[in-house]
Design a protein that fits this description.
about 525 residues, alpha/beta, six-stranded parallel sheet, binds ligand ME8
Length: about 525
């Protein structure tokens, strides 16, 4: 790419600090990390944001339940999410906390803009509120279970009656529908798009955007009896982090509108309806895309604290390895669908796809080179048609994989890379380089050279998904830091014969069931 790098701004939801991080949080952020790393390697100027959502009644109540003030509480729990990001090897460029001053300023600036444009007015709210969902519900949306009214999510609701500011959401339905129409890729996957469209077509009511019954929030400028509704506060984080309103005009101009907000399916409505409406109302461009991924279950069961089956990402990485966990989460399920975490599926993938397919390819080829080519990148003669077929597949892989990543189709991108790995394993068997050692050593070197090139391509392309393991593979090919970007894929940066290689070592161990343990997670 020539000229200044193209910007790419990607965000995770900011996580509520009422709980310790679990597989769901790890998953959302992982998908963003893999995309951020992919885009950086592809020459983009990436801004990858994550952080914590620290206001609202839910946090207030959780802090009170522990007998500590909300700021001390959020300081503690927010750190858990920072630690998780470091542990999972996420490459976020910033970590935002909604209790930071920069964020308060951004929220109040957005509020003032909305008020000045008459998009917000003072009224009073009488209706149902769920603290757990931090959402307002209409009477018709509620479900009744054992005679008790509940939110459609099953969360308890309470009747709220208090003065409140309202955002004129009802006036935005047609403009939102036009926006969805003009931007068919705004909501993904497409099944979710229809869900949002029918919600908006069903008519929108003005949205209560302030609360007076508690104080743990951003004060409404000019009317400090009110704090802002936590979702207006939370969504604004995406603007705060790029310098809105005036902290960093250049950064704002570079990265806004965001390229992708990654969210779980449960919070799509906030991102695909409320957020673009707030932004358009403030004359700010809406984000380019919102992707709603599915939810994980544990061995077929819904994950919940009461069932005691919450999956801890630290347990996963301790048991299976970090890159193995990263691989599994994005390989197991077509992104967008719900997924089930099962120990046996994890073990199967670790052993067959990582240890056997990828690991063995590297191990076999690199040890043959170590033994038979003096530990140096082999020389090569002319390439045969079979050599060119597999090399061309490797050269063309970036285009395929890039398309899949741009569609957030991680499992298909992985499939495409593993198709090359499968071809390479078949090529090893067909060419049988061990047999060529005596009969045709020059041809043996060419075959091993072709294979080393395939491993170079696979290693470069798996970096976003499995950064540490891929680095080990690329180290074994003596590739320098500057030789690992996607610009180095293809024949122009081919391995140089004669380059000294380190002694190879295995990268993907097989999973062996610990003595005395069954097969349950
Ligand atoms: O919603 N499987 O925060 P949050 C997959 N603060 N994903 C899951 C999951 C599961 N079992 N459980 C939760 C919030 N998630 C707000 C966001 S953004 C401006 C404010 C995902 O901590 C869930 O779908 O409750 C959501 O995307 C994310 O974890 C954060 O949830």
């Amino acid at each position: 790419m020539t000229g200044p790098k193209q910007p790419y701004y990607i965000t995770t939801p900011i996580y509520y600090v009422n709980d310790k991080p679990h597989i769901g949080h790890a998953y959302t952020s992982l998908s963003c990390d893999v995309l951020a790393r992919f885009k950086r390697l592809d020459g983009y100027d990436v801004m990858f944001l994550t952080g914590t959502d620290e206001h609202g009644q839910k946090v207030d109540q959780s802090a009170a339940a522990r007998g500590i003030d909300p700021q001390t509480f959020t300081d503690q729990i927010s750190q858990n999410f920072r630690d998780l990001a470091a542990h999972m090897n996420y490459s976020n460029d910033d970590f935002i906390r909604t209790t930071e001053n920069r964020h308060k300023k951004a929220c109040q600036a957005l509020w003032k803009t909305l008020l000045d444009r008459d998009e917000i007015y003072l009224g009073s709210y009488d209706g149902w509120y769920s603290v757990r969902d931090e959402a307002f519900y209409g009477e018709k949306e509620l479900i009744v279970k054992d005679g008790v009214k509940l939110a459609p999510t099953g969360a308890p609701v309470e009747w709220v009656s208090e003065p409140s500011y309202f955002f004129r959401l009802s006036a935005w339905a047609d403009r939102l529908l036009k926006f969805y129409d003009d931007n068919p890729d705004f909501i993904a996957p497409s099944s979710r798009r229809n869900e949002v469209l029918s919600f908006v077509k069903g008519g929108l009511r003005d949205l209560s955007v302030s609360r007076t019954s508690f104080k743990w929030g951003v004060p409404v400028p000019g009317d400090e009896d009110h704090v802002m509704y936590v979702w207006l506060d939370a969504l604004t984080n995406y603007l705060t982090a790029v310098g809105y309103p005036d902290a960093d005009p250049e950064k704002l101009a570079t990265y806004w509108p965001a390229d992708l907000h990654m969210v779980g399916k449960d919070i799509l409505r906030f991102h695909a309806v409320y957020w673009p409406a707030f932004l358009m109302a403030a004359d700010i461009a809406p984000p380019k895309r919102v992707f709603a991924h599915g939810w994980w279950t544990n061995e077929g069961q819904k994950i919940s604290k009461s069932l005691g089956n919450v999956i801890d990402p630290y347990d996963l990485t301790a048991r299976y390895g970090l890159d193995q966990t990263r691989y599994f989460l994005l390989r197991e399920v077509p992104f967008g669908n719900d997924g089930d975490f099962a120990h046996q599926s994890m073990v199967n993938r670790m052993n067959s796809e990582l240890a056997n397919d990828y690991g063995n390819l590297c191990q076999r080829v690199l040890s043959m080179i170590g033994k038979n080519c003096d530990g140096k990148v082999p020389a090569h003669g002319d390439f045969t048609d079979a050599d060119m077929t597999i090399l061309n597949k490797a050269y063309g892989l970036l285009d395929v994989v890039r398309g899949q990543f741009d569609a957030q189709a991680f499992n298909r991108a992985i499939d495409a890379i593993w198709a090359l790995i499968g071809d390479a394993n078949r090529y090893v068997d067909e060419m049988a380089p061990w047999g060529l050692k005596k009969t045709d050593p020059t041809r043996m070197e060419t075959v091993l050279y072709v294979l080393a090139e395939i491993i170079r391509h696979a290693g470069i392309l798996t970096q976003p998904l499995m950064p540490d393991s891929s680095a080990k593979i690329l180290d074994q090919l003596s590739l320098g830091e500057g030789d690992r970007g996607f610009a180095c894929l293809g024949p122009d940066h081919a391995l140089v014969s004669g380059t000294e290689l380190p002694k190879p070592s295995g990268v993907f161990p097989r999973y062996v069931e610990p003595e005395g343990e069954g097969e349950t997670a």
